[in-house]
Amino acid sequence: MPNPAVPRLAREGPSMQNRPMALELTSSCLHDSISLLRYYKLLGEQAMAQVSEADLTTALDPESNSIAIIVKHLAGNMVSRWTDFLTTDGEKPTRHRDGEFEAPPQTRADLMALWDAGWKVCFDSLASLTEADLSRTIRIRGEAHSVMQAIHRKVAHDAYHIGQIVFLAKHLASNRWTSLTVPRGKSAEFNARVAAGEVSQR
């Protein structure tokens, strides 16, 4: 019997670019942005699944953030930005950004609950939008953004931090790491599998 305390991804291991979210041809900025965010969310989860619970709170040096700190920051950012997205400023008075870089959850379960809660707020808000909403104006710290700009800002912000999570997880997992993208020396094989429709680039 599998150990339920160990995440499924950690038990089974991630599969190289073999995800259920195949690249879909679309001209919809909103649809593609949501797809990209789901892709980055999964990358972060597959990376975190490869490290121990203790590794989640490990920082490489006093000036570095741990995976847990990055997750806490991402969750705080998402809740602030995407709660009442169209009608209130994205930097909520209740947000304490500096506190996001202190005292993160110490268990995997608590950390993933925080992660999931932040993403739920984000995806629920995005699901309520239409293409017509993209040109509407919202504010972040009082500064005007189109909805499209706010979404692009979100994608860039999350890709930046999830890249940090992947870097840290790869470093901490060391020789136990399973590649999340194209392993070294496997580019030609991967290209052939994409061309054959066996895997997706996203």
CATH class: Mainly Alpha
Largest sheet: spatial strand order: 1-2
CATH names the topology as Four Helix Bundle (Hemerythrin (Met), subunit A)
Low-confidence stretches: 1-20
Helicity level, as a percent range?
40-55%
Please identify the structural class as seen in this structure. Answer: mainly alpha
Amino- and carboxy-terminal Cα gap:
32 Å
Oligomer: single chain
The CATH superfamily label reads dinb family like domain
How many β-strands, per DSSP? 2
Q: What is the overall shape?
A: flat
Q: Main beta sheet, described? A: 2 strands, antiparallel
What's the structural domain tally? 1
CATH architecture: Up-down Bundle
Element order: H for helix, E for strand: HHHHHEEHH
**Radius of gyration, taken over Cα atoms and rounded to an integer in Å:** 18 Å
Number of helical segments with 4 or more residues: 7
Query: Would you tell me the overall average pLDDT?
Result: 89
Task: Write structural notes for this entry.
The chain has 202 residues and is mainly α. It has one domain: Four Helix Bundle (Hemerythrin (Met), subunit A) (Up-down Bundle). Helix content is 50%, strand content 4%. It has a two-stranded antiparallel ribbon with strand order 1-2. The N terminus is likely disordered.
Summarize the structure.
The chain is mainly alpha-helical.
List keywords for this structure.
202 residues; mainly alpha; Four Helix Bundle (Hemerythrin (Met), subunit A); 7 helices; 50% helix; 4% strand; flat; disordered N terminus
